[in-house]
Amino acid sequence: MKKIQYIAIVFVLMIAASCKKTFLDTAPPDQVSEASFYQTTTQFRQALASTYVTLRAVFNEDFYMTEMRSDNTDYDYYPVNVGTAYLARYQLHDWNDDANNSYLDDEYRYFYVGIARCNTILDHLQDPNQVDATDKSEIQGEAEFLRALYYFRAVRYFGGVPLSLHEVTTSAEAYIPRASADDVYKQIIADATDAIAKLPTVTFTKGAQTGAATKGAAAMLLADVYMTQKNYAAAETLLKTLSAMGYSLLPTYAAVFSTANKNSVESIFEVQYTAGATGSQQSNFIYLFLPRTTSTALITSNLGTNNTSTGGWNVPTQDLINAYESGDTRLDASIGVVEGTYDASDNMTISAYKSIVNYTPAPGKVGRPFDKKVLNPVTIANNTDDDWPIYRYADALLLLAEAQNEQGETGSALANLNIVRQRAFGNASHSITATDQVTLRAYIAHERRVELAFENHRWFDLIRTGTAIPVMTAFATQIKLIHTYLTASSYDVEPYRLIYPIPFSQTSLNPQIKENPGYTF
Amino acid sequence: MRITFLLISILLTIGLISVKATEVNGQDLNKQVSFTVGHENLSAAIKRLQAQSGVGFAYDENYLGLAHLFTQPNSFVNESLSAVLTTLLQNSRINFKEEANNILLFRITYGRITGKVVDETGAPLPGASVALAGTSYGTITDSQGNFVLSAPEGTYTVAISFVGFKKMEFPNMKITSKPSVLNVNMAGAGQLKEVTVTYGKQRQRDITGSLAVVSGTDLLDKPDNQFAQELQGKVAGVQVTQNNGAPGRGFQFKIRGATSFSLSNQPLFVIDGLPITGDINDINPDEIESFTILKDAAATALYGSRASNGVVLITTKHAKPGDAKITFDAYYGVQGIPQQHRYQLMDAQQWAQFENEYYQDKLADEPGTNPTLNPVYANPSRYGVGTNWFDVVTRRAPTESYNLNVSSATDNSQSTVIAGYMNQQGVIVNTGEEQFSLRLNNDYLFDNKKIKIGFNIAPSYHIDHNNRIATEGVNDIIEKVSEASPLISPYAPGGGYTYSAASPGQVANINPLAQLMETIDDYHTTRILGNGYLNYNIWDGLTLKLNAGVDVEDVTHNNFVPSTITTNLIATGTSAYNNGYSYTSEAYLDYNKTIAHDHHIDIIAGYSIQKYTAESNSIAANTFASDAIPYLDQASAVTTGVSDATGYTMLSTIARIDYNYKEKYILQLSARDDGSSRFGTDNKYGFFPTASAGWVASDEDFLKDVKQISFLKLRASFGLTGNNFFSSNYPSISQIGSGTAYNYTFNNVLQQGEINSTLGNGQLRWERNKQLDIGLDISILNNRINFTYDYYRKLTDGLIQAMPVPYNSGFTSIVYNTGAIKFWGNEFTLNTTNLTGALKWTSNFNISFNRNLVTSLVSPGYIVRNNTISSDYDRTEVGHPLGMFYGFVFEGLYKDAADVANSPKETLATAAPGTIKFKDVNGDGVINNNDRTFIGNPNPKFEYGFTNNFTYKHFDLNITMSGTYGNQILNADKWAYLTNLDGARGGLLAAVADRWRSEADPGAGIYPRTETGTTSLGRDVESQWVENGSYLAVKNINLGYTLPLKGNTTLRNVRISVSMDNIIFITKYSGLNPEVSLNGLNGYGEGIDENSYPIYRTASVGVSASFK
Q1: Which one of A317, A386, B200, B879 counts the least CB within 10 Å of its CB?
Q2: What is the ipTM score, two decimals?
Q3: A165 touching B (Cβ < 8 Å)
Q4: In angstroms, rounded to a whole number, what is the distance separating the alpha carbons of residues B793 and B430?
């Protein structure tokens, strides 16, 4: 009998153990779970922060596809390294990129990381939660603004893209075809319109805003969208609302790019970076834009870094330098010159930092221009405080001028254009007086090029104004003369190349996604 | 130890047992007497007995010393004289017999019988029982199979028995004072040997699944510091390869081609019943008694959920009664990289010449680029051979190991202690590993052996020095070695190292020697494997078995990269700690019963739980006060500080029924119901049943008379197994990421960020494996030839993979059940005893033919290795075998302008005479990605192993060979790195001198011209890269000599051996190691040679001594 009791006990134990089903319900102990997240305002704010973070990924590489694609910037050719990553960037600039290009792949992916985060927030905001109505409205506005911003860039780069508007929870939901560009634009307009309604107006505390999305940023974004669609009247209406919100130009052009003036009254929206030893919140644009060198110390506050494997990009073209009029303070504020000598491996030994104004190289030296807007005092090597501007008030004024000019309101257009020029030249003596629409259109375009150089507008401006093909054809002829290394297939300046190929990784993964016409690969 | 053993013998033979006279059966002795005796001396008592019984006695009173022996008071009524005498003489060492009608009293004299018990291969059988039938005299053989049995002189039947062998009896053995010798060959019962199977042991003949055991002579003392080495080439269908030569690493297993797209393709390792979760490299091979490799569904069934890739059961050494001893094993060896197949690279002079020609060709063909020749390259003849970087970073390195094994056992307690130290230095400078290990295995029996309790604990401490630095693949040290310029000396003139190993015009390359010498990258691993068990025999046949164990792994990682070897001249350091532990707890009942003599059943049922938890933290910092102190307290900025945790749980119910009728018809049914926390809510449980049957045909009447066939068994099994090994513990739920990558600053104010970081798959279910196995075991010629054949077919469906998902999901991949693969194959194993005389020779030959085919995969129906075509080496696609090499088809070089004009061309690169020409596979007139196709197959047509053991007198010799046939290797090493014609990387093959330079000088026709913009084509994967990977390797030769020890010294046995590993590879493959595989044996990305850590050849001497 006693033995039978033992057995009974053992079996009971066994059954008890196997009934403990919760034993298998594990969750990462170092994380909150999705089920318990998305409940409080704090949690939604955290999710939103992560959605802004994606802006950094996008804008860390955006210049390869905008400034470098246009006639504004070039790269330092590095013949000894024709590795895949170098070739990908060369090809974007040289107009012979294909669907394998890893930078296109990156940007396409970053857009959707951002969009998916917005979708997740917007979906969960509809679920029961503890967020009060005011916060809910504001959070929704921010997410809609960011989603519109990402889609707007995506549609201009790639044309109609898959329109994901809800959190993807199964892989099947991700297999959708491309939407038409029109449908993407409709969604962007809907999101941006709602964002304008929901977002608060900017407030400046000690002259600075927080850097989060505001009503003004959404209005600027939507105006930009309308401009792209040539809906000038709607754009004008929106752009005119900005000055009342408190935006204005800073007194000098150079001040705009000082890290002391981040998120100033001129800023409408910028990607936020913060220098510091911890936390990966910093930028490092200047190190990418300087020539490859074993030490950048002479330029970067005596804190040298060897950027031979990262530097050499976004180099101002002579064409851009020549575009600045005499007396324009923006040239000196935008472009600097590093002087030195190149060694056999095409690395520069920097010997001096010079001004671009009236620059002639010292004997035996070479001067190499660079984007100076991102040069600010550095306290840790390769770790800078520079934000990346997306929209600022000067841009709004010039866009407004363009909208007005296109509607024949040349007088108003001229006024807005000259506000920008007066600051640039320090006085009104360089103000434009022409009132002919066509002439004025060229002035505005030129003004946008020099005012917004290195701010990733040039490429979109060329496309919006329909001048991309003639301008770039002329530029191609010029640059092929200078750069003998360019291959025959480079500068294939054809209209189909005004949108980039959909990355091969996507067309091959989802056969519903068709490649853009003209790209065999 | 010896004393313990003697004690047992004495107790057994004298102390407890009464002596029975067996030869006494005369009339007088049967005479009934009544007799009373008090406490008196024997002399008096015998005299009274003599008088009372009237029977004559003959004895020498003084010799027997009767006056000094005393009797116990007793009284006998009508008992035989024999019985009375037996009682009186009890404990007196005096015996009696009837001779010539007298009762003769005589002193008992003991004789001895000695001998050795071996199995049919001549291997000694320690622990065999040697007994005299009908008496209580008996003993047990020692570790060498030797026995010495003392018993009263006489003629006996000697019975020898051993678990797993047929009992043998030798009648009419005379035991006299002059020791007689009985050497026994326990033949004919190998099938009765018990082998370790899942949840217990089984006799070989009852096994219906497909499994293989490696033990005995295969585990002779060899310079193995990883147990994987001991399994190479030993078992059909089990591929063990050494993919690289990093100390303590580099071995990979693959059983029956098993693969999963999820991370782990390695089998489940179970040590003494405990599935281990940590690194298998921490296990000291010297602790291992035997391996059982389970291959099919039936054999692996009770590990159902984790058995997809097969299971390796490891049994550690436990002392056996009668085998008390101390053993000391040591070896010392030297490892070096074989000269065979080292690449011939350009020396300094040839390299300068190349740069010269590079310049001249530019000048001739591309004058617009205004080329200049760097003065360094002018006048190449002034340079000699320069630096051979491969030689600089490699070396001959020592390897050594010492193990002390102390074991002692009685019938009721067994104890084994194994202490080990191992030190293996790497053939790459400043790399190496050290290990200290200890194992304590203790077993205790109580209550007449009804209760068995045991504790095994094995702590170890493992130091990896720089051998986990990223050396292989793209952009790591070995690549930097092959790209370094031969013009540069690694050593700076004033001492120390040169900073750069790049000549003018070359890409940056920090001196790889300095990187290896100055980096500190140490992992210290403390590992504790421990388990305890209790077996309680509740009643006859019913046993309760409890087993609980823990596997603890603590890893600290210290990394320091001094400023002198970084690009930004900033020193960086990392300090990280990882603690992982798992516990397993199992309880089951085992009921074993024979019903109506012929029906044998064995049922087990129980449950098992396992929980794994890991916590880790990591701090990274930079900008150190100096390079002298590598600790983070010297750093000025902490850049990362994180800690995290993870874990998983499993909950399983198991049951198995074994039934056999007359040990002839065998049936086994088993099932495991497994729950794993890793799956979606509705799919956590997987049910894995198997059924198998066996028929011992040789026991049938019609075969019983066929003398040649000793044993014949047919087997079949079918069942399901599963897999839940993948990298993430939480693939079914969407995780929320946090930390610096999610944080944002708003006008310099930090806002913490958290948001979904993975795309969870709530529908994720078990990866399942349906497997059929049909097998045959046959032994002929008195078991001298044993042959095993297996055919298997398995279908893995629901393959779990991190499947790429369109970016518009916001993610790049989702863990998903993606497809199905079919595997099938034939395996043959032949074990033969070729010679049994003075020269003994046994051999094992095994060969397996494994095939696989991908039968379905989710959209787009294939998996690429990489999105960039230059690294997209292989593709796994529906309708093709796994991991086929994928690329362009090489068609030579464009001959001339006409050839260029008339042939399809690449769109982005500039086709010109002398550039690489690919085949226009799709015939659309241009060369692009769509012209890539399948260009090679990494899967061998067959794999084989051949092991031979010889013993002659005191010598033994073991030769292990293994090989593959029909597989191909993608030699990215040679083509993507060593023939890079950009002029920017050193380490060019000397043969590249014979490249295309002009139409008049087209060279060998395989190395293209160096024109700008054309050379990147040379890095597109193409058919030239694919090489024949077949090989035959002599993996190990071990020659031993056992010293003939005379006299009763403490030393019992000394074996001295010399051994060599990786002796020769017979292969057409042009690289260093035909076993190379950058991604290991993962099934879908095998056979890639890309800057691998070179493998080494080892020569060593060893000594193994055992003491009494």
Answers
A1: B879
A2: 0.94
A3: no
A4: 46
